[in-house]
């Protein structure tokens, strides 16, 4: 099964994609930062009461059409997915750090062994 794009996680994002509405254009019309609007579109932020009125009005829709219950939207799954990605990045970074530390320890061991040979 194909994974949904981030914009398709919410009704707002789905509608904007279907209608070809540019994120920056809508953000400018609303007087918002496009990054904030992006977070609304991917479900990372919940809309304020003002936004629940303003955004549908700009789109010519009702609040329910834009923000109504979406049975496919699961913020917990999104949080779990993002947490897993963060954990995997940390493990990769830790693994790289451990590999470098191991290389350093091995090199120090080699140098110490060479020093002992010289001093004999």
Distance between the termini: 68 Å
Order of helices and strands: HHHHHH
Q: Which fold does the CATH topology of the largest domain refer to?
A: 434 Repressor (Amino-terminal Domain)
Query: What radius of gyration results from the CA coordinates?
Result: 25 Å
Give the fraction of residues assigned to helices: over 70%
- CATH structural class of the largest domain: Mainly Alpha
Strand content: under 5%
User: What class do helices, strands and sheet pairing give?
Assistant: mainly alpha
User: Biggest sheet, in brief?
Assistant: none
Averaged pLDDT, please?
78
Give the uncertain stretches in residue-range form: none
Count of runs of 4 or more consecutive helical residues? 6
Number of domains: 2
Q: What best-fitting shape do the alpha-carbon axes yield?
A: rod-shaped
Q: How does CATH name the architecture of the largest domain?
A: Orthogonal Bundle
CATH superfamily of the largest domain: lambda repressor-like DNA-binding domains
DSSP strand count = 0
Short description, anyone?
The protein has helices at 11-19, 23-30, 34-41, 49-59, 63-67, 75-119. The protein is mainly α and 120 residues long.
């Amino acid at each position: 099964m194909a994974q949904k794009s981030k914009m398709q996680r919410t009704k707002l994002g789905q509608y904007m994609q279907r209608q070809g509405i540019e994120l920056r254009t809508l953000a400018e019309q609303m007087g918002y930062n496009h990054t904030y609007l992006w977070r609304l579109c991917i479900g990372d932020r919940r809309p304020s009461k003002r936004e629940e009125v303003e955004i549908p009005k700009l789109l010519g829709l009702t609040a329910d059409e834009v923000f109504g219950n979406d049975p496919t939207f699961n913020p917990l799954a999104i949080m779990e997915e993002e947490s897993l990605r963060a954990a995997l990045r940390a493990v990769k970074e830790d693994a790289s750090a451990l590999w470098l530390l191991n290389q350093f320890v091995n090199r120090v061991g080699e140098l110490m062994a060479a020093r002992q040979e010289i001093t004999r």
